[in-house]
Amino acid sequence: xxxxxxxxxxxxxxxRFRIDIVTRFLREAMPDILCLQETKVxxxxxxxxxxxxxxxxxxxxxxxRMHHGVAIISKHPLAADERFDWQANREARHIGVRLxxxxxxxxxxxxxxxxxxxxxxxxxxxxxxxxxxxxxxWSESCTGPxxxxxxxxxxxxxxxxxSHKQLLDVVSHTPIEVTALADLQAAGxxxxxxxxxxxxxxxxxxxxxxxxxxxxxxxxGRRLDHMWASKDVASAxxxxxxxxxxxxxxxxxxxxxxxxxxxx
Length: 264
Hints:
- The chain is an alpha+beta fold.
- The protein has one domain: Endonuclease/exonuclease/phosphatase (Deoxyribonuclease I, Chain A, 4-Layer Sandwich).
- 25% of the residues lie in helices and 25% in strands.
- It is built from eight helices and 14 strands.
- The protein has a six-stranded mixed β-sheet with strand order 3-4-2-1-14-13. A six-stranded mixed β-sheet has the order 5-6-7-8-12-9.
- The protein is globular and about 45 Å long.
């Protein structure tokens, strides 16, 4: 019989500031592994003891003071710790590990890209596109069972945003970003697990702006957080969960956790 493993991903927007809801999620959802983005903390200041107390004894970190940062917290041993500089400026936006069963787990935080979708007027947008291009080149040579998760900062489908027409010129849903993400997906023949379990045109969001006074009532969401799997891993996926309720927890992130269960 295959073992069941639950892997979650969450842009937490400061792990220390939101440690209470992180621990709540771990207790309630009980993932085996949690991939965090935007941890905003140096490795030496990461609250490892909190996770150790909950049974997560294996932690891989790639931190940065006040900005960015990614981490993988696990109940299972982690090996082959790697950090790719897809941003080409040493920002802490990726960490990759391998599990004992051979699964490769890649945790990434793609740049948001600023406000203007023009690389000439907005260098941050150009950095985002270049980041995706470097990921695409890596993806072309990626082999073996792999799970790619994180905050991709792109909502590719019309049903991934609250208004396709109104967001066509808004960074995260512009045609050039959607095309870049499609190229990345094609390069690795990745399976989008969110949409494997919730096929379009069903609504599926993972992010709501802090600007909304009542995020649930306005429901102006976007699906910025993703889990992509190689075909062999996708075939082992048995369930996918989207924790919208976490957006209403005390001191919430603007992102919510997502989690997939696998029979590996």
